[in-house]
Amino acid sequence: MIKNYFKIAWRNIVHHKGYTAINVSGLTVGIAACLLIYVVVQYELSFDTFQPNFKNTYHIVTEQKREGDMAYNPGVPAPATEALRLDFPQIKVAALNSSYGSQITVPEGNSATGVGDKKFAESVGVVFVEPRYFDIFSVDWLAGSKSALKDANTVVIDKSRAEKYFGDWKNAMGKTLKMDNLLNLKVVGIIEDAPANSDVPFRVLVSFITCKQHPNEYGYNDNWHALSSNHQVFVQLPANESVERINNQLKTFAHRHAGEKGKVGMTNFLQPLGELHFDKRVGNTLGDHLTSKSTLRVLSFIAILVIIMASINFINLSTAQSVGRSKEVGIRKVLGSSRGQLIGQVMGETTIIVAVSLVLGLIVAKIALPYLKNIASVPDDIALLSVGSVLFLIAATVIIILLSGVYPALVVSGFKPVSALKNKITAASIGGIPLRRGLVVLQFGISQLLIIGTIIAVKQMRYVNEADLGFNKEAILVIPGSTDSLSLRKMQSFKEQLLQSPEIKSVSFVSDVPSSDNNWGTNFYYNQENKENGITTFLKYGDDDYFKTFQLQFVAGKGYDRSDTARQAVVNETFLKKLNVLKPEDAIGKTVKLGGNNSPWLPIVGVVKDFKTNSLRESVKPIVITSRKSQEGEIAVKLQTKSLTKTISTIQHQWEKTYPEYAYTGYFLDDNIAQFYNQENQLALVYKIFAGIAVFISCLGLYGLVSFMVVQRTKEVGVRKVLGASVSSIVMLFSKEFMILIAISFVIAMPVSWYLMSGWLQSFVYRINITFDVFLLAVVSSVILAWVTVGYKAIKAALANPVKSMRAE
Q1: Is 141 helix (H, G, I), strand (E, B) or coil?
Q2: Where are the domains of the chain?
Q3: Alpha-carbon distances, residue 199 vs 40, 137, 278, 373 (angstroms)
Q4: What are the backbone angles phi and psi of residue 163, rounded to the nearest 5°?
Q5: Could you give the CA distance from residue 781 to residue 290 in angstroms, rounded to a whole number?
Q6: pTM of this prediction?
C-alpha cells in the first residue's frame, strides 16, 4: 500500500513539474538557511559546555555603584583570592592574571641584540595561572602535569603554540621562551589546544608566582583598594552548595576585608561559566568575542519565519492544485478509497517533495558553509552535520511535512464524489480562498518585516561607521610597543627619525588611542578638595603631540607641555558636566588629583570637545588626559593618504632597525574601531541575506498562484478580450487582489517591525530615528517585486489569442 502511495505520488509530482519546482526551490532554500542558522546558534550556545563541571563553575565578578549607576568589572582585588579560600573553604578557588599583547620570543639568534630570534605577538591567550586552575578546568596533558606551574619562571603551552615555536611539540619540553623581552621561561608542560568554543582559550600559561615577582610590569597590585580586570578568579562549587547562599555572603565579602577605606559600593557575585559568553555588562576579557542572546533569538526567529514562508507556498499551491485533481479524487472514492487513504496519498507526495528538498538543502548548505564566517564568529572548520544538527533536521523535516501536507490532505480527502465527478469543485467551493489570502498576507508580512529590519540595520550601521567621533581616525597607524626601560630610552630618537619623512604628519607616544575598549578608571579629587566625590574618571596618557595627532578640538585652553611625568592635565566636556562646571573656561587653572592622597595636584590647562571614548553603544565617559612616559607604550603615526603602502614599509623597516627585539604589529585605527561593530555589521548582513531569501520565496509562491489563476481563468480572459478588454485591464484583473493583500500585510508588519527594531536600536546610545521613509521604501519595493512577479504571467495571458483561450478546457 505504502509503495503504491509513493509510486502514484511520484507520477503526480512529475506531471506537475512547474509547481513541484517552485515548492522544491522554496523548501530547499528554507532548509539550507535554517540549517546554517542552527549551526551558528548551536556553536554559540556550546561555549565551555565540554567542561566536566560546567554547571558548578563560576566566575567572581565585581559590581560597583558610583554616581547612581552600576558598573561591572570581571576582576577582583588581588588579595581576594586568599580571602575567598579562608571564607569559603568548601569551594575550589583559582586566580589568573591576563597579559594582553605579549610577545613570545624563541631565542635562536644573537643573544645580545635579539637579531635572528623568532618573535610571535600573542594578542590573547597569555595568562599567569595558579596550579589550582587545573583543578577547576579540565585539560589534556601531552607532557608534564598540573603541578608543573608551582615554580617561578615556568610555562605551559598548548600544542599549536609548541609547534609554531619549535616545529614539533615533542621538541618543546625543557626549552626556554622569552616573554616581553623580560621573562626567561622554561617549558614544563604541553597541553592539547582549547576547543574553539571556549571563553578561556589559554595558549601560554605562565606560573602565577612569576607575575607576583614582577608586579609593576604586569599590573599585580596586592591591596584591596586596587581593582583591575586583569586579575580574575574562578571557583567551583560542590554539587550540593547553594549559589544563592554564596552570593548572599559575597555581598559583604569585599567591604569586610577592605574595611572602611575600601571601594565605595563594591560587591561581588557569582557569574555562571555559561554566562561568560553572553554577559555584556562584564565583557569577555579572556575569549575572542561576546554574543548577545537576543541576537541568537533573532536568528532563530528568522529561521522559523523562513520555514513558515516555504510551507505557506506549499499549502497555497497544493490547495490551488487540488481543484484540478477533483475528478481523480472522485473516482478513487467511488472505487472505495477511504479518507484516510487519500490523506496518506497527499502526505506521501508531500514527503517526497520535502525529502528531495532536504537533500538539495544539505547540498546548498554545504556549498555555503565556507562563507558562514562572514555572517557569524565561527571557526573555519565548523562542522555542518553533528548529532544536534541531524536531530534538528529530522525534527524540522517532520514539522515541515505536517505544516505543508496536513491541510491540503484534509481538503482533497474531503471532496464529495458526485461534485468531483461532475467537475463542480472550484477554489471558492473548497473554502480555500480566504485561507490563501490570509497566507499571502502572512507571507508578505514576513517579507516586509525582514525588509524593514534590513533597511533600519543598514542605516544604523552606516550612521555608526560615518559618525563624527570627535577626533580624526583616518590614516593613523598604531604600533603596539613596550614600556621597558630600553624601549623608553629609544622613544624620542625613533620619533625624530619618523618625522624626517614628508609622508608622516605627526607622531605621538600614547597609552591608549581616543576610542577603544579600554576603561582604565580611577577616583579623583577636584580643585584642592580632598572630599570623595563618588565620580569615576577615565584615564588616557599621551605625549604633548597627542592632541595634534588625533586632531582633538579644544573648547578652552591648550595642550600640556612636554613632560615625562604628569605635571598638567587636559579634561573633556563630560568631566566638567559631572562636576557641574558650566563654562569650560572656568576649569582652566583648577587642579585635579588622580587616585590616592600621594598623587600630585595637576593644573588643568585645557578642555577638549567630547569625543567618543568607546563604541557608540556607550555614552561618552569623563576623561583626564595627561603625560606619563612609563605608560606610553603605543606609537600613533598620522600619515599622508598617498603612498600608504610605501610609507608603512618604511615605518616597519625603521621599527625593526630601532627595536629588533620586538615584532612589528602595526594596525590602522579606523580598522580597529570598525571591529567594535563586527557583530552588528554581521547581523545587518544576515538581515540582507534573509530578506532576499524571504522575497525570493514570496515571489516564488506568488508566481505559482498567478500561474494557476491564469490556467483556471483562461476562458474568462478570452471572453473579456472578445468583449473589448484591454491588456492593462486584464493585467489589473490578476494583480489588484495581490496589491490589496500586500497593503494589508504592510499595515500588520509596520508596527511589529517598529517594535522589534526599536528594541535593537536601544543597544546603541547613539542611534538613528526610525522615520516613515523606511516603511515607504519597504512597501514600494514589495509592490514593485510583486508587480514584476505577477506581471510576466499576467501580460502573457492578456496577449494570448482569444480564440485559443475560448477553446481551452
Answers
A1: strand
A2: 1-47+289-430, 57-275, 440-468+677-809, 482-661
A3: 16, 12, 10, 18
A4: -70, -35
A5: 35
A6: 0.83
